[in-house]
């Protein structure tokens, strides 16, 4: 636990203290970006009523941000540490691949969760109310579980595909389309039945479905919940295997 | 003496390239071994195998009699490793890098901080402790990397090119640390050339293209080294027949000509006096040059060292 905390806090420290990358510039930059997204979102859909906004648009946007940022943060962190040789150094210490996997996955997820709170707060300011705090706590629980896969995928890809250009292609040509057809823009129920079935097999679909169902009581689905847990476990396994694979080199 | 490290028939391949070929040697407890070799000789890979970072394709490593592959976690507690690159966490200050590495090596934060402060003072680095790695010079980073390796007071210290990028006083301090641990700590250091290893190491292994070319104490290597003396003749005027006459002499095993200078390597040193007397009238001057081990290994690879 001490070692995991050390890895995570060490990475957070500079974010909080460094004059160029400190907490204030990051918050300001983040606020401006998210404000742009939120305002754009609300202007594009002026006709939408409050209930639909709360039940569909906002959870989707927040979930999208959390999953994508988890993937990106984990990829950047591990790629950066690998490039400087720090990851190799860590492996020479008593830090095991399991500890490394947990630390970097948690690091990526925590960063994304913290940033996504900004979006929620901005929506809260704009709309006045976004459902109860209890709903959001459950929503963040779902988001955390879903992020385990995406952060794990980020760590594994950064270790397996060491060329950043290849990683960028993967991000643009596979990950973004997967998000778009997984119920981020439209409910997957609008697709033809066969396509709908396939979309449930995509790793982002359970997260969007369950994230929304927090705000629509009665829509919870046991199979989709099991799918979400399955993807989460797969994310952790991927991370562990890629770090173990690094040890076998 | 007790063997601290033993490598048996280590072979490592990266794809079709064989980086280490059947490398075997042992290191006695409390001694300093220098592994010398040109770039891409396999030195870093060898050290990475000793730290458990890379697994050999064939062969086994034993640390204090324990198989490294089977007791990796336990053995890591005894090893301090300084990689060839600084490998510092750019997101943490230099002091935090030391503190965290103490934690990663099983120390308590309080102990790691206290020992880090002690070393930082000793190595005149206190003023940099709150800087980030990318805010200081390469030399300062290298010193921090060395301190990070010795922080947990390891029993076995593996230093990959620790002297590169370091100034004279730091190099001196590193050797002082190594000397102070003699008899207790086993140290393996890699170098690109022999000049630093020759005066300080208890034993030197010369590695080339993944193979051990020679292995022994500096004194033993020098003793075994054949033809490490150059006999240099500078002629006023060098006639082709002089060169031919010298070349055909029984005692001359090697001859090189550079304009009016002829460099000889002789089987019998006594023959040099005779040569001087024979060519006295046409010689401008003459001298004897003792080659260092560095020159023997890197400048005259065709001159073989006895093992």
Question: Brief description of this entry?
Answer:
The complex is a heterodimer of chains A (249) and B (307). Chain A is 82% helix and 0% strand.
In words, what does this structure look like?
The complex is a heterodimer of chains A (249) and B (307). Chain A is mainly α. Chain A has helices spanning 2-17, 23-44, 50-84, 86-92, 97-127, 133-160, 164-184, 193-200, 205-213, 222-248. Chain A has ten helices and no strands. In chain A, α5 (97-127) packs across α6 (133-160). Chain B has 307 residues and is an alpha/beta fold. Helices cover 32% and strands 30% of the residues of chain B. Chain B is built from eleven helices and 14 strands. Chain B has helices at 43-51, 72-76, 94-104, 109-122, 138-150, 168-180, 197-200, 218-224, 240-247, 271-278, 293-299, and strands at 3-14, 17-28, 32-36, 58-63, 66-67, 79-82, 156-159, 186-191, 203-208, 211-216, 229-235, 252-258, 261-266, 283-290. In chain B, the strands form three sheets. In chain B, strands 6-7-8-3-9-10 form a six-stranded mixed beta sheet, sandwiched between helices. A four-stranded antiparallel beta sheet of chain B has the order 2-1-4-5, with helices on one face. Chain B has a four-stranded antiparallel beta sheet with strand order 12-13-11-14, with helices on one face. In chain B, a hairpin with a 2-residue loop joins β12 and β13 (261-266). Chain B is elongated and about 75 Å long. The chains are: A mainly alpha (249), B alpha/beta (307). Chain A binds chain B through residues 2-3, 6-7, 10-11, 13-15, 18, 80-81, 84-86, 88-96, 247-249, and chain B through 51-55, 73, 76-77, 79, 81, 83, 85-93, 96, 100-101, 103-106, 109, 132.
| Strand arrangement, major sheet of chain B | 6-7-8-3-9-10
Biggest beta sheet attributes of chain B: 6 strands, mixed
Head-to-tail CA distance between termini of chain B? 21 Å
Radius of gyration of chain B: 24 Å
Q: How many H/I helical runs of chain B?
A: 11
Share of helix of chain B, binned: 25-40%
The protein's oligomeric status is heterodimer
């Amino acid at each position: 636990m001490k070692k995991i905390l050390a890895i995570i806090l060490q990475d957070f420290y500079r974010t909080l203290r460094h004059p160029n990358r400190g907490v204030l510039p990051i918050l300001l930059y983040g606020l401006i970006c998210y404000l742009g997204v939120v305002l754009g979102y609300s202007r594009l859909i002026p006709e939408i009523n409050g209930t639909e906004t709360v039940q569909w648009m906002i959870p989707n946007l927040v979930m999208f941000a959390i999953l994508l940022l988890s993937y990106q943060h984990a990829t950047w962190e591990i790629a950066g540490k690998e490039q400087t040789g720090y990851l190799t150094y860590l492996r020479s210490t008593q830090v095991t691949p399991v500890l490394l996997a947990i630390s970097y996955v948690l690091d990526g997820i925590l960063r994304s969760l913290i940033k996504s709170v900004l979006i929620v707060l901005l929506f809260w300011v704009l709309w006045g109310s976004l459902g109860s705090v209890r709903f959001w706590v459950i929503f963040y629980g779902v988001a955390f579980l879903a992020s385990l896969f995406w952060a794990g995928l980020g760590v594994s890809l950064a270790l397996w595909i060491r060329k950043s250009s290849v990683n960028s292609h993967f991000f643009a040509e596979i990950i973004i389309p997967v998000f778009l057809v997984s119920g981020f823009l439209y409910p997957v129920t609008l697709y033809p039945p066969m396509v709908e079935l396939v979309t449930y097999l995509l790793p982002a679909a359970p997260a969007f479905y369950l994230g929304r169902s927090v705000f629509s009581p009665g829509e919870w689905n046991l199979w989709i919940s099991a799918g979400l847990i399955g993807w989460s476990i797969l994310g952790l396994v991927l991370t562990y295997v890629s770090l173990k694979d690094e040890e076998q080199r | 003496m007790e063997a601290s490290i033993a490598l048996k028939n280590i072979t490592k391949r990266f794809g079709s390239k064989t980086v280490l070929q059947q490398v075997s040697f042992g290191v006695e407890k409390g001694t300093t071994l220098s592994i010398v070799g040109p770039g891409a000789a396999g030195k870093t890979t060898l050290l990475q195998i000793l730290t458990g970072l890379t697994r050999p394709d064939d062969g086994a490593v034993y640390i204090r009699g324990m198989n490294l592959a089977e007791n990796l976690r336990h053995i890591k507690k005894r090893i301090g490793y300084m990689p060839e690159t600084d490998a510092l966490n750019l997101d943490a200050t230099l002091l935090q890098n030391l503190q965290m590495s103490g934690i990663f090596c099983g120390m308590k934060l309080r102990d790691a901080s206290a020992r880090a402060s002690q070393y930082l003072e000793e190595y005149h680095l206190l003023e940099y402790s709150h800087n980030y790695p990318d805010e200081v010079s390469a030399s300062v980073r290298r010193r921090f990397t060395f301190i990070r390796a010795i922080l947990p007071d390891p029993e076995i210290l593996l230093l990959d090119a620790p002297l590169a990028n370091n100034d004279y006083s730091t190099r001196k301090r590193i050797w002082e640390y190594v000397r102070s641990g003699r008899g207790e700590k086993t140290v393996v250091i890699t170098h690109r050339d022999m000049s630093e290893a020759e005066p300080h190491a208890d034993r030197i292994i010369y590695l080339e293209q993944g193979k051990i070319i020679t292995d022994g104490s500096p004194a033993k290597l020098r003793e075994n080294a054949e033809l490490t003396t150059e006999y240099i003749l500078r002629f006023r005027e060098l006639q082709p027949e002089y060169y031919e006459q010298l070349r055909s002499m029984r005692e001359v095993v090697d001859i090189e000509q550079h304009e009016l200078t002829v460099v000889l390597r002789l089987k019998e040193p006594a023959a040099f006096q005779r040569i001087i007397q024979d060519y006295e009238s046409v010689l401008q001057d003459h001298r004897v040059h003792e080659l260092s081990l560095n020159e023997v290994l890197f400048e005259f690879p065709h001159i073989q060292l006895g093992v």
